[in-house]
Amino acid sequence: MDSIDYYDRYAVPYYEETVELSMEEQLQRFMDLLPENAEVLDLGCGSGRDTLFLEDEGFSVTAMDGSARMCELAEIHTGRDILHLRVEDMEFDDVFHGIWACAVLGHFPPDKIQEVMQKILNALKDDGVLYFSVRKGDRNGRYNGRYYYDYSRDSLDDLLDSIPNIKVLDIWKTSDARGEDHNNRWYNVLLRKVKNKEE
């Protein structure tokens, strides 16, 4: 069972656990960097919770998830069409002013993350902004049906240093939005796509 199979199988409890969580602090930092009426991709949208928030703030949002069952639940929750597509199968080119990837990239192992990041950067317009979050820790493997690759600050810096044509805008840590039962810590990253890394 890969991570997509997990979300298909456990879509309802995952939806119920996450649909009411607030990511407002992270969303606000992301939105502050976007132009008015920006085109935004909610990558791995899950319940559609953040799609609705972004749309309420005036952005045009494409919501996407790799799990067919999560897409069904998100369509019910948002009343909008959800794009059923895996990150690694994206073929967008220069489309979005912003990409919101909350708790998605940690499902990709080190030998796949470069390819995935390139897909994401291809989808961004020049000067576009990416937000992503990864779990702080040392897991590397399958846990309860899902693959996780956690990051230390050094391994996160190594990843970011290896990606051409980006400017890191901010990195900060947060506690898990699900509360005290989940003592996870998360790295939150904001970066901008630039034509040349030196810009």
Description of the structure:
- The protein is an alpha/beta fold and 199 residues long.
- It is 33% helix and 30% strand.
- The chain is built from seven helices and nine strands.
- It has a seven-stranded mixed sheet with strand order 3-2-1-4-5-9-8.
- β2, α5 and β3 form a beta-alpha-beta unit.
- The termini are far apart.
- The mean pLDDT is 90.
Output the keywords.
single chain, 199 residues, alpha/beta, two-stranded antiparallel ribbon, 33% helix, globular, methyltransferase, Class I SAM-dependent methyltransferase
Blueprint (SSEs and pairs):
Layout: H1 3-9, H2 11-18, H3 24-31, E1 39-43, H4 49-56, E2 60-65, H5 68-78, E3 83-84, E4 96-101, H6 110-123, E5 124-136, E6 140-143, E7 146-149, H7 153-161, E8 166-175, E9 185-193
Strand content: 25-35%
**Nearest-angstrom radius of gyration?**
16 Å
| Structure annotation, total helices | 7
Low confidence ranges = none
Sequence of secondary-structure elements:
HHHEHEHEEHEEEHEE
Give the biggest beta sheet. 7 strands, mixed
From the spread of the alpha carbons, the general shape counts as globular
What percent of the residues sit in helical stretches (DSSP H or I)? Answer: 25-40%
C-alpha end-to-end distance: 43 Å
Strand order of the largest sheet: 3-2-1-4-5-9-8
GO biological process, one term: methylation
Protein name: Class I SAM-dependent methyltransferase
InterPro entries: SAM-dependent_MTases_sf
Enzyme class: transferase
